[in-house]
Specification:
87 residues; alpha/beta; 3 strands; 36% helix; globular
Amino acid sequence: MPVIAAGLAGEAGLELGGVMAVAPQGADPVQAFWRLAEIAAQVRVAHPGATMISDRNERRPGGRHQCGATHVRVGTALLGGRPGFVR
């Protein structure tokens, strides 16, 4: 992950603000977000401005705040669901 962050941080016009992830289906969300917090700490070593930790799935409760989440997506809660994507 820090390698990807380095590549993004070096691109003109992009600002690395932090990390965002979705806990894998069936995984313990708290464990997944603790792992995300560890990755965020690694990224901040080289990119101190990358302070955001965001959860991408607002429907699964978990210990996001305990893991240092600074943002939680609430789009579906506010705007309703979207139709599923069909190929």
